[in-house]
Amino acid sequence: MNLLLIRLIIFAVLFFAGLKLYRMYREWKLDREGPQQEGDQGNRMVRCSWCQVHLPEEDALRERGDWFCSGDHRDKYLAERKEEQKEEKKEEQKEENKQERDD
Ligand SMILES: [Zn+2]
């Protein structure tokens, strides 16, 4: 009976010691990373890819790695980028045609 009690106490002590160590480790880690993350906590500012205005990350919309202040600007930006890609494709095709003629 005594042995069981001793085992129980040892187990409890180990458990709390581990918990305390874990908490200390977490605090130490937060202390170390704290200064670097100061800007990331709370309201990080991002820039709208369309109108270049800065706004808090939580109010911004994200689309394929770009930030936008509103759905309207996101749509405009994506529409323009699609057109750019189309034009690039057209130019590529022109280049290909030229090369074909040269041969
Ligand atoms: Zn905008």
TrEMBL record:
Region (Disordered): 80-103
UniProt keyword annotation of Transmembrane present: yes
Record key words, sorted: Membrane, Transmembrane, Transmembrane helix
Parts of the chain that traverse the membrane: 6-22
Protein name as it appears in the record: MYND finger
Species this chain originates from: Halomonas ventosae
